[in-house]
Amino acid sequence: xxxxxxxxxxxxxxxxxxxxxxxxxxxxxxxxxxxxxxxxxxxxxxxxxxxxxxxxxxxxxxxxxxxxxxxxxxxxxxxxxxxxxxxxxxxxxxxxxxxxxxxxxxxxxxxxxxxxxxxxxxxxxxxxxxxxxxxxxxxxxxxxxxxxxxxxxxxxxxxxxxxxxxxxxxxxxxxxxxxxxxxxxxxxxxxxxxxxxxxxxxxxxxxxxxxxxxxxxxxxxxxxxxxxxxxxxxxxxxxxxxxxxxxxxxxxxxxxxxxxxxxxxxxxxxxxxxxxxxxxxxxxxxxxxxxxxxxxxxxxxxxxxxxxxxxxxxxxxxxxxxxxxxxxxxxxxxxxxxxxxxxxxxxxxxxxxxxxxxxxxxxxxxxxxxxxxxxxxxxxxxxxxxxxxxxxxxxxxx
Length: 398
Ligand code: GLY
Description:
This protein has helices spanning 2-16, 26-43, 73-85, 88-99, 114-129, 132-146, 182-190, 196-211, 248-265, 268-284, 307-323, 327-344, 377-396, and strands at 50-54, 62-64, 149-150, 155-156, 171-175, 222-226, 232-236, 375-376. It is mostly helical. The protein has one domain (6-397): Glycosyltransferase (Alpha/alpha barrel). A hairpin with a 7-residue loop joins strand 1 (50-54) and strand 2. Helix 3 runs antiparallel to helix 4 (88-99). The structure holds glycine. The site of glycine (GLY) has 4 residues, from loops.
């Protein structure tokens, strides 16, 4: 009887103070990522060309230049490989692909994506090396991104280009993905950049919170504003199923974005909001925790999945789990993240021998028929980031 009591007490202790993720070998998955990245490296003969996606059933990457919005993810993956391995070989490769993006700061921002492009590459580079060249690139990139800010609206102009339904240049637009790129502004404001970069980022997060979510905290992809008055004109989708649907990656950007904004500001409004946008996403997920590309596609369960959204959320949840004051809720977020990573690491979602990406089954732009059920580089980036975050959490709790 006494032995059973002690065993129960031991289980209780183990479940509340976990020092490992039972049934999940995070080092094994990280080694897998490095093996797959080595295969991609052997195909990457030109450092100015970055792997972007592999269509379903194919093996070869589609390569893009530095101006493509996804160009920062491959150098970012190489920096994460260096972060994990500490091997000089990965650092050298990360350096040469990161340098290919430096010309982005020679002209003003094409759009908000300069944040993805530079923070994933030079941001990780500076975090790991403290090399001044990356710091200068990041500071110039942040100033360039800030030129897109419209003080009348209070947000950054995400797309200074013609997009169906968006009405630029007569009107201003802001997309949910833009939340991620506030991280570059926060970083710059703390590392020698102007204070107003911080103010712009906070303003963008608050106005987006007010205008881009429905009463149930699901997000819409795009909000169009009157440039002159700053008033909201309409909320529409571009990459989602409909104007009233929850596009999975849009909600994933919101979860990741508001978690990051709380980390940077410590303003409790953002922590509360990060949990609300997370909770509605978790409530509506299918049992395997990998979302369909849009939660409201009537073709579900025959609709394509989006592993990239799952990877973004898995990474964000690990951070959110450390920020919430309710320990039980933090534990739920962490367990959900681990379950998502387990699913992504199973044969259904890992590419394995099928191709040299890490993951299969992401959806890029369903409405225009692009990158559906594909391997996409940003899914791999957030997958390896999440694995590293989990490894650090597990190491800390040892
Ligand atoms: N930022 C574009 C996307 O999420 O597809």
